[in-house]
Design brief:
By secondary structure, this protein is mainly alpha-helical. 75% of the residues lie in helices and 0% in strands.
Length: 268
């Protein structure tokens, strides 16, 4: 990567990291506002990947509004509201299709609504797992994805030759994957032993689980982009691409942590 592009990558990542750190430090409503913003921008990018062009703006606004409704319902009504909100979103989108079909039977199909439902499952449904987490827990999950991505990037850049899954992501290597795993395990274990209550083996296993989730989240978004013949999900973050290019790992790491937490208490 050219030096200027590398500097852009570091600067944009630093700016985003500073905003997230401020939100975690302040807590409360600021965390919710950051999640709402990330969700809205992520859904906008996701929808635009499948339906580019200004004439699909109303579709993107619909997705962002439904995503915000899901996050807000979980925040103020509890996790049990997800079932009702997802059911409501499906029927609102079904009615959207019904009216579109009534107006244009020849061209209207259910694809747009399926894309919107997928965006709800991909972003707000995954991001809502962050809402009940403590500041330490959110910092840990974020650290795990940052360590995974950063270690994988540099290990792959300097040592990567053999490709791990070229059909999905032609640039990712075994060296990057192993480096990401090592970086994640080291970061999670160091963080946990310093601030958590679980034994050493629990932090090591958590680091492995979060890294696998992060890598699979990355591979999933890479497969989407290859299928759609696009390089980046957007242009929001110079040097990185779109927002989805930076949070794809997080979107699977969050539910992974929530699942691991069911079986083990990492923090008091």
């Amino acid at each position: 990567m050219p030096a200027s592009a590398h500097q852009q990558r570091i600067l944009s990542a630093g700016f985003a990291g500073a905003l997230v750190a401020l939100a975690l430090w302040q807590g409360g409503i600021l965390v919710l506002l950051v999640l709402l913003a990330v969700c809205a921008m992520g859904q906008w990018e996701f929808t635009a990947m499948f339906r580019p062009g200004p004439h699909h703006k109303s579709m993107r606004i619909t997705g962002a509004a439904l995503g915000a409704a899901l996050l807000l319902s979980v925040k103020f009504c509890g996790a049990q509201s997800v079932v009702w909100v997802m059911a409501g979103c499906f029927w609102l989108l079904a009615l959207r299709f019904l009216f579109r079909y009534s107006a244009d039977q020849e061209h209207a199909d259910f694809t747009d609504e399926l894309i919107l439902m997928a965006s709800l499952g991909y972003l707000p449904l995954m991001l809502q797992f962050a809402l009940p987490l403590s500041t330490l827990e959110m910092a840990l999950v974020l650290l795990s994805t940052i360590a995974s991505d950063t270690a994988a990037y540099y290990a792959g850049t300097y040592f990567g030759k053999a490709r791990i899954w070229p059909q999905v992501s032609p640039k990712k290597s075994w060296a990057g994957s192993i480096g990401g795993m090592a970086g994640c395990m080291a970061a999670v274990t160091a963080f946990g032993l310093e601030l958590g209550d679980a034994p050493l083996y629990a932090w090591l296993l958590l680091g492995i689980a979060l890294n696998i989730a992060a890598q699979m989240g990355d591979f999933f978004e890479s497969a989407l982009k290859r299928r759609l013949s696009i390089k980046d999900s957007g242009t929001l973050m110079p040097g990185h691409g779109g927002l989805l290019d930076r949070i794809d790992s997080l979107l699977l790491a969050l539910p992974c942590y929530a699942l691991c937490k069911l079986g083990f208490s990492f923090f008091n």
